[in-house]
Design brief:
Layout: E1 11-16, E2 33-39, H1 48-56, E3 61-65, H2 73-88, E4 93-97, H3 104-112, E5 116-120, H4 127-135, H5 167-171, H6 175-191, H7 200-210, H8 217-229, E6 233-236, E7 239-242
Parallel strand pairs: 1-2, 1-4, 2-3, 4-5
Antiparallel strand pairs: 6-7
Helix pairs in contact: 6-8, 7-8
Length: 243
């Protein structure tokens, strides 16, 4: 873990990649920022844009792969890392990037203990950048790091993210669009034999993440119902089984 820089405040950014899948990290490529991207067990691949930009940040950016499935497995990992980081750098500012409001009680608890923390639904919505936009000033002038030798290639397996359907098709409730989404999810689950969601809540979250959270809750429910009707999944209470 890189040590804090000088006497200035370090901004620690922890991205819930199951919930938010950013592809533009330019705002985070600063000397005062440390980045962790938390990847769910069911997410087999990452976009090449994300991997290339993280590689350019070198030791200031890293991945954390979640080893198991569970409704809040990734959330607990983020909470654990904040606990470790705040112990070594109590002056740091901890930014959780997620649309999941379940992180808000954690943020309030950290604030009560005089630890700077917040949750933002997007990188651009972080207080660090909103304040700079409001004042019309640069967020924080930092010295450019000295050139370093070209790093070795990242070891994570990446490929281009599959193209999304046109926005009108994603939002549509027509039979053709719904059938196409169900077919894509059936193919994904058939190809992914390990790390598949083990609970109903995790399956719904996995479906929404596959479509980059651009479909509504009703569409997610329809896909899960289609998977059940097709015999791809079986529900045993809140547990999910696969044929």
């Amino acid at each position: 873990m890189p040590p804090p820089i000088g006497c200035g405040r370090v901004n620690y950014v922890l991205i819930d990649h199951e919930n938010v899948q950013p592809t533009d990290l330019k705002l985070l490529d600063r000397a005062d920022i440390r980045l962790w991207v938390f990847v769910g067990a069911g997410q087999a691949k990452l976009s090449s844009e994300l991997a290339i930009q993280m590689q350019a940040m070198r030791e200031r950016a890293d991945y954390v792969r979640i080893s198991g499935n569970g409704p809040n497995a990734l959330d607990f990992h983020i909470a654990f890392y904040i606990g470790q980081l705040s112990g070594t750098d109590p002056r740091g500012f901890f930014h959780i990037i997620s649309r999941d409001t379940g992180f808000d009680p954690l943020v309030e608890h950290l604030k009560a203990r005089k630890i700077l923390a917040c949750r933002s639904a997007a990188i651009a919505g972080m207080p660090l950048f909103k304040q700079a936009a409001a004042t019309g000033m640069a967020a924080l002038p930092v010295a450019k790091p000295k050139p370093k030798p070209k790093p070795k290639a990242v070891t994570v397996a990446v490929e281009k993210a599959p193209p999304l359907e046109p926005s009108g098709e994603v939002a549509a409730s027509g039979t053709a669009a719904a059938a196409q989404r169900l077919t894509r999810m059936k193919a994904l689950l058939a190809k992914t034999k390990t790390g598949r969601p083990g609970t109903l809540a995790a399956l719904k979250k996995h479906v929404a993440a596959h479509f980059q959270n651009q479909i509504g809750a009703q569409d997610v429910e329809a896909i899960v119902a289609g998977l059940k009707q097709a015999g791809v999944v079986k529900l045993e209470g809140l547990k999910v089984r696969y044929d």
